[in-house]
Amino acid sequence: MQAGKGEPTIAIVDDDPHVRETLSALMVESGFGVVTCADIPSFHALGDPPPVDLVVIDLRLSGESGLTLAIHIRERYEIPIVMLTGVGNEIDRIIGLETSADDYLIKPFNPRELVARIRAVLRRYGHSSAKPATNGQAIAFGAKKLDLESRRLLDGENEEIPLTNAEYRLLEFFAKNPERVITRPELLEELGSDMERYVDRTIDVLILRLRRKIEPVPSKPVHLQTRRTRGYVFQLSPS
């Protein structure tokens, strides 16, 4: 299946035919070209080098390991890798990242999040065609804007301010719930399984990182404000 001119091509390596079909349709719908592979030999059959711009690999392939393929790709090609791992399986996550995979996602996942992660990785590799247009699904605060479609934080010059996944999720939750006190337990619940092994202190760290990226003066926040003993309030417009 061919992509439109200039669009990146994504390889999907998964032994589940339903997953391959679903992800293939998602890639086409998102403007990518796509090839699907049921196993590692099918990927190798694509050619040397394979004519793809990014590979999505299920770490737990039937009868073989996606880790083997990831190592092969990393040793030979400059092709980015996004790993899919099992539900809450910390060992899978660690193994996936130790292959130098560029990102990972835990099943089940939001399809739009997978597309956003793929676009972000491709942009890091210089694929400008992976940069989505802002389509109005955005929340503005101060001189910045949170693009909900592409999951990006943009400054006043429309340049991206890099966020980790946890930082983005926290900022999106704040931006969608402005002008009300949000407690720490509510924030931890919103961040979900990614935070299960963390303690309350993690929220402090994420808040500090966000303030450094969104506040004119991080030590004097005008958007992400603390309400002592109660939680935090997000102000879209400085009061």
Q: Spans with pLDDT under 50 lasting ≥5 residues?
A: 1-5, 193-198
Shape call: elongated
> What distance lies between the first and last C-alpha atoms, to the nearest angstrom?
52 Å
Strand order of the largest sheet: 2-1-3-4-5
Structural class: alpha/beta
Tell me the series of helices and strands, N- to C-terminal.
EHEHEHEHEHEEEEHHHEE
Count of helical stretches: 8
Query: Over all CA atoms, what is the radius of gyration?
Result: 19 Å
| Percent in strands | 15-25%
Largest β-sheet summary:
5 strands, parallel
Helix content: 25-40%
| Strands, count | 11
Mean pLDDT: 82
Question: In brief, what are we looking at here?
Answer:
The chain is of the alpha/beta class and 239 residues long. It is built from eight helices and eleven strands. The radius of gyration is 19 Å and the shape is elongated.
What does this structure look like?
The chain is an alpha/beta fold. The protein has 8 helices and 11 strands. The protein has helices spanning 17-29, 40-44, 66-76, 90-98, 111-124, 165-176, 184-191, 201-214, and strands at 9-13, 33-37, 54-58, 81-85, 103-106, 138-141, 144-147, 152-154, 160-161, 224-227, 231-234.
